[in-house]
Amino acid sequence: MGNRVTPVYILSGFLGSGKTTLLQRLIRHWMEQGLRPAVIMNEIGEVNLDGLLVSSEVPMAEMLGGCICCTIRGDLSVQMAELIEGEKPDLIVIEATGAGNPMEIFDAVTEVSLYLKLDIKPMVTVVDAAHLADLHASQQGKTYRLMVEQIRCGSVLVLNKIDLLEPDRQREMSEFLRRTNPYARIIPAVKCDVDLSLLWKAADGQNNTDPTTQRGAAYIQNGEAAQKSDHYPLHNHHDHSRDQSHDHNDARYEDHRHDHNHDNNDDHNHDPNHAHTHASHEHVTVYTHYFDGPVDSEDFERFIAELPREVYRGKGVLRFTDTASRFLFQYAYREADYLKVTPQGNVPDVAVFIGEHFDRNVIAQQLKELERKQAEPE
Ligand SMILES: Nc1nc2c(ncn2[C@@H]2O[C@H](COP(=O)(O)OP(=O)(O)OP(=O)(O)O)[C@@H](O)[C@H]2O)c(=O)[nH]1
């Protein structure tokens, strides 16, 4: 493995907050400095569409169909070892799933640093200002609690999407971040357009290389740092954990649930702290739809506009009957975005929807109806 220490940057933040947008900027920034970054992308869904947004020159490991913080935690050390040995990157950046518990992700990476020489950098959390402002009004729900946890774990908080908020609401959210995590640096932004050279400089000033102090100062101060005693060997139950953690009766339907009995890491079950930290994304539902053919673009846009509130993230690559190009669509907190793409390799026409207890059958039926309409013209 050599003596090289690989810096590891972790991007946290709720689904659709702007992590990939920040990742793209960071990669450009590092490459301009002559560095060779590598990326680990973690997605709850079975397909990695964010990967399409990252240059094919950048080595990437995909951890799909689960969360680093739980179901595919054991894969992380394997993926990191392979990247470091195979690609010899100057740094690794991990984009965590937006549904992941940031503390658990930090712990998972910290565990890997027992086997590999890593310099774990303080966590950057991207906050969707508009989504937060909305949930802040009621101050309840699992999504809100997870967002708060992500805010508390970040050493740098990028308050993103401020273009969607009035100035006084922006101020209110900044103040809320300050109260929630008085130790973090808060950077308001649109499309994560921040001074990247300052991101970790500011955080490094607060934290040293001891992983315990990097967990987000708010946690340490409040004495809530999770107590961990669990360890993973390097080549740990790679496929085993993944297979048992999902309901694979129908490959197109997945539920992101926690079932700790599937892990051979039984310590989890005896850790009282674990129960509360892990409850955070039991509620997340994922539906993946593989399209049989192109659909009408207006029908699709209408379908997206009418998505139930419980669906807070959608993304996909698809073909429309009335356009020549393929499109990458993004839906995040009631805003949709379409980008022309020419995917490299074999990317199916697919859409992934992530949300809280929504009815997957309804979404499936609506999409099938769009396909059927095209297959049987009047
Ligand atoms: N209005 C607005 N939209 C933004 C901003 N930043 C990002 N977006 C859009 O929000 C959507 C989600 O952005 P991503 O960067 O993919 O978010 P993410 O956190 O990587 O999403 P997941 O990987 O699904 O968790 C995209 O359509 C972006 O174009 C912003 O500052 N303002």
From TrEMBL:
SMART domains linked to this entry: CobW_C
Keyword vocabulary terms for this entry: Chaperone, Hydrolase, Nucleotide-binding
Basic and acidic residues composition bias: residue spans: 240-280
Keyword Cytoplasm: no
Region of interest called Disordered, as start-end residue ranges on this chain: 230-280
Location of the CobW C-terminal domain: 284-371
Region forming the signal peptide: none
Catalytic activity: GTP + H2O = GDP + phosphate + H(+)
Classification via InterPro entries: CobW-likC_sf, CobW-like_C, CobW/HypB/UreG_nucleotide-bd, P-loop_NTPase, Zinc-reg_GTPase_activator
Pfam families linked: cobW, CobW_C
Family: Belongs to the SIMIBI class G3E GTPase family. ZNG1 subfamily.
PANTHER family xref list: COBW DOMAIN-CONTAINING PROTEIN, COBW-RELATED
Designated name of the protein: GTP-binding protein
